[in-house]
Design a protein that fits this description.
It is a single chain. With 217 residues, the chain is mostly beta strands. The strands form 3 sheets. It has a 9-stranded antiparallel beta sheet, with no helix packed on it.
Length: 217
């Protein structure tokens, strides 16, 4: 990694990362023998889904960051503004493939992730508006029940972004108040199996607010 502090409380940074992943967990289908309901084993076979450890490639990528207060701008308001930004690109290979033969990444991995924060900080008042976004996220494989060839669909979360607001004011050295709002746009999370129009599940996430007082002794 490398960082350049080009002004007071300001920074540009870039880093490369490589995480050695020895193995990952994979769902797979295998044929097993089961006894009938009367307890007699008549040699009947059925395909079931189970898990196993498989080899996985390294998780690697690049991350970049920027932070700067805008003290060079004129006026009390503009000079109290500032910004932060970071971006991460990551790649991986779980060793599994989907029904189309495409390689699947490690679970919970998004190829692109980024955060943007705008803030105001002066005279005890701190306001932060943050937007966090990630591209489609791989959740794992969805196995289709079949006694023929194994059929696997990739389960994905759609790209998702969240807008949050944080406001705090320090009344005295010992007393402060704060107001937080999360997921202001009421962004829900929707997953699909292999194809974007093949709905899988939905996480409904509401807008939330918190109001409080901080006291230090």
């Amino acid at each position: 990694s490398g960082e350049w502090y080009f002004a007071q409380d300001s920074m540009l940074g870039v880093g490369l990362f490589l995480i050695d992943v020895a193995n990952s967990v994979e769902d797979f289908q295998e044929q097993r023998n089961f006894a009938d309901l009367d307890g007699i084993n008549r040699g009947r076979m059925a395909n079931i889904w189970t898990t196993r450890n498989v080899g996985a490639s390294d998780l690697y990528g690049i991350e970049m960051g920027y932070k700067q207060p805008f003290t060079f701008l004129p006026g009390d308001f503009l000079s109290a503004l500032g910004a932060e930004f970071n971006y991460t690109w990551s790649q991986s290979d779980s060793g599994a493939v989907d029904i189309q033969g495409k390689e699947l990444p490690l679970p919970s991995n998004s190829e692109h992730q980024t955060n943007l924060i705008l803030w105001y900080d002066k005279h005890g008042l701190n306001v932060r508006l943050a937007y966090n976004w990630r591209s489609e996220e791989y959740l794992g494989r969805v196995g289709l029940n079949t006694n023929e060839a194994e059929m696997v669909l990739g389960n994905w979360l759609e790209p998702t972004g969240y807008l949050d607001l944080s406001v705090s004011y320090q009344i005295t050295d010992n007393i402060g108040v704060y107001f937080n709002g999360t997921n202001l746009t009421e962004q829900s999370r929707r997953s699909y199996a292999q194809f974007e129009d093949q709905f899988q599940s939905l996480w409904v996430q509401e807008r939330r607010f918190a109001l409080g007082v901080n006291v230090s002794l």
